[in-house]
Amino acid sequence: MSELAAATAVTPVGDGVYTGEIKSGWDIMGNANGGYLLSIAARAAASEAERPDPVSVTAHFLRPGKPGMVRIETGVLRSGRRLAVARSTMIADGPLVAVLGTYGTLEPSNHVERLESGPPDVPSPDDCIPIEPTETFPPPFMGRVEIRLDPADTLFTTGLPSGKPRVQGWFRLHHDEPIDTMALLVAIDAFPPTIFNANLPIAWTPTIELTAHVRARPRSGWLRCAFTTRFITGGFLEEDGEIWDESGTLVAQSRQLALIPKG
Amino acid sequence: MSELAAATAVTPVGDGVYTGEIKSGWDIMGNANGGYLLSIAARAAASEAERPDPVSVTAHFLRPGKPGMVRIETGVLRSGRRLAVARSTMIADGPLVAVLGTYGTLEPSNHVERLESGPPDVPSPDDCIPIEPTETFPPPFMGRVEIRLDPADTLFTTGLPSGKPRVQGWFRLHHDEPIDTMALLVAIDAFPPTIFNANLPIAWTPTIELTAHVRARPRSGWLRCAFTTRFITGGFLEEDGEIWDESGTLVAQSRQLALIPKG
């Protein structure tokens, strides 16, 4: 079992209720990473629905997650031949994360496929910049996985952001451990926020909601990841993500909505 | 009250439960339009959360909706200063649609804004093609709202699809009735699917999940709408939507995931 699989494991205790643990070290300034919380809550729902893969999962973030035991309440709303729909709510003192998702068994498609655009153009992992975690910034979470950033997107670390709200690079688990579809839910929220490169007077943008679509089970190896923001408007911004595996397969797509706190 | 507001009205009956009605005529081949169902379920959740606007709402579609009375069970998971999170499930004989959403009060932002791209380039409404509903195709639903399509995107109606999975055009309510943010949830799912223009041997692609982000309350008048698909792969396709109002404001963004049935 990978370190990530162990850190997101859940145990059924009956009546659709599961227990799990927010492990320490998976945090950013003391609050657990959102994708990590989603992965735990999705595992519980998928287990209850008896399907291995998240096909489309949406998390709304209610309160920050701190290390410690959590309870996940699940309910299966529909169980069909190909897909099942379930909800799951992670609870500590109060509800932390609410998830609604469709789960299934992903298999190679026998259909004609069409891609209007290909994988993002990212320098090779050897030409990208590893993130070295610290107790503050980069946060401890970054040490739980391997992330390498496109040098063009690391300008924010120099105090001179690129001006382009984009962050791309590579992701893999430690020791190149196999990545399953639940681990993709961590990868999809693992990179520094695009706003860091926007060169705007906005620092902290809490995520309201994150939706991930998983298209395929990834092959092992580096995952090519790209995150972009097009619209910073109305007090909100979206961040769109794509993850491609080394075989050139689109494995996941995501969009999150973040809030711009009032000045 | 607009015809749409009347057709999506809900009545509280206590304990977070609401009643509503799927009106006849809002269907496509006998099944109610997904955005229309979402609008009803979101109205119930927003009412329970005491917030007027859907900020981010996700619907998973469980079973087709037929005309008749429905029950909507809601639950508020968090009620904060700016935002509230609530779920709502529409039920007839069984659950039809499950919705998880964040609701609030949208106000003009006092923040710096940044748009990486502008409104889509669509010919003026007078130069676009109105959709005239029929009992079969175009379906009755199209007669409940006013839709005009970019001529370049109507090629599928001639049996010679453009080959580009895109559909764009204009939307407004009958008699130019005012459009509120709940009506945007109908607009975001009102257009013919992009797959019609893909020129692939795929006809029917049921929507698994639809997420809409609402950025601003729209001004009256025509809404400029664009829907595109980039990835038809893994047995799924996404459809991304944008809606802009006549003042050039991005009012909503959406993504839906549809299933490609096995051949």
Give the SSE layout.
The structure is a homodimer of 263-residue chains.
Chain A: H1 3-7, E1 10-14, E2 17-22, E3 27-28, E4 31-32, H2 34-49, E5 53-61, E6 68-79, E7 83-91, E8 95-104, E9 114-115, E10 129-130, E11 145-149, E12 166-173, H3 181-187, E13 207-214, E14 223-228, E15 231-233, E16 236-244, E17 250-259
Antiparallel strand pairs in A: 1-2, 2-6, 3-4, 5-8, 5-13, 6-7, 7-8, 10-11, 11-12, 12-14, 13-17, 14-16, 15-16, 16-17
Helix pairs in contact in A: 2-3
Describe this structure in words.
The structure is a homodimer of 263-residue chains. The first copy, chain A, is 11% helix and 41% strand. The first copy, chain A, has helices at residues 3-7, 34-49, 181-187, and strands at 10-14, 17-22, 27-28, 31-32, 53-61, 68-79, 83-91, 95-104, 114-115, 129-130, 145-149, 166-173, 207-214, 223-228, 231-233, 236-244, 250-259. In chain A, the strands form two sheets. In chain A, strands 1, 2, 5, 6, 7, 8, 10, 11, 12, 13, 14, 15, 16 and 17 form a 14-stranded antiparallel sheet that branches. A two-stranded antiparallel sheet of chain A has the order 3-4. In chain A, strand 6 (68-79) and strand 7 form a beta hairpin. The longest helix of chain A has 16 residues, at 34-49. Chain A starts with a helix and ends with a strand. Strand 9 (114-115) of chain A pairs antiparallel with strand 15 of chain B, so a sheet runs across the interface.
* Portion in beta strands of chain A: 35-45%
Q: What's the shape of chain A?
A: globular
Total beta strands of chain A: 17
* Total number of helices of chain A: 3
Question: Quick check: average pLDDT of chain A?
Answer: 93
Low-pLDDT windows of residues of chain A: none
Find the structural class of chain A using helix and strand composition: mainly beta
CATH class of chain A: Mainly Beta
Measure the end-to-end span of chain A. Answer: 45 Å
Mind telling me the CATH superfamily name of chain A?
Acyl-CoA thioesterase, double hotdog domain
Count structural domains of chain A: 1
Helix content of chain A: 10-25%
| Biggest sheet details of chain A | 14 strands, antiparallel
CATH architecture of chain A: Beta Barrel
Biggest interface, which chains? A-B, 62 and 62 residues
